[in-house]
Design brief:
globular, alpha+beta, lipoprotein, 4 helices
Length: about 160
């Protein structure tokens, strides 16, 4: 009986230690493009995507590492799109509330209003913004993410060099 109990405890411990794979779900109905309508970039094109992250890490360093890895593996096409000034990806924790948006667009009216952006302060993980430099050849990247206390932190991966005139 002791061996059976010990075996059950070991099995439970090992299964709880099994790290779940982080997966990304693109929200097609919350991705698109548009044009800035004011400010220094008025008329410039921007592209945005919204992504759900399943089994997202919880530590600050792990979240930042995940965002950098996502950027390096999935955002190489930003540099290819020469006609866009800005490319932004919003990442949300996948849960029962945010999973609604996998199949549905925003529903801003009525008694049961559902808008993805309303979940950002509670379920947002962070965002990756890639902007074209003034010389139109290089890009700058910034990652903003929520730490464990829900404070927003920024990490700049690379900056624009001084534009030569």
């Amino acid at each position: 009986m002791k061996k059976l109990f010990f075996l059950i405890i070991i099995t439970a411990f090992l299964s709880s230690c099994h790290e779940k794979k982080v997966t990304f779900v693109n929200l097609e109905k919350h991705s698109g493009e548009g044009f800035f309508d004011r400010g220094d970039r008025e008329g410039e094109k921007f592209i945005y995507k919204s992504i759900l992250v399943e089994n997202a890490p919880h530590g600050d360093k792990e979240i930042l590492d995940m965002l950098i890895k996502y950027k390096n593996q999935n955002l190489k096409d930003a540099a290819i799109n020469k006609d866009a000034y800005s490319f932004t990806v919003f990442l949300y924790e996948k849960n029962n509330s945010t999973s609604y948006f996998i199949e549905n667009a925003d529903d801003p009216g009525g008694l049961t209003s559902q808008v993805l952006q309303d979940y950002y302060s509670k379920n947002g993980i962070g965002e990756i913004t890639i902007d074209k430099c003034g010389n139109d050849k290089d890009w700058t990247a910034k990652i903003s993410y929520f730490d464990m206390q829900r404070n927003l932190k920024d990490t700049i991966l690379y900056n624009c060099k001084n534009d030569k005139k």
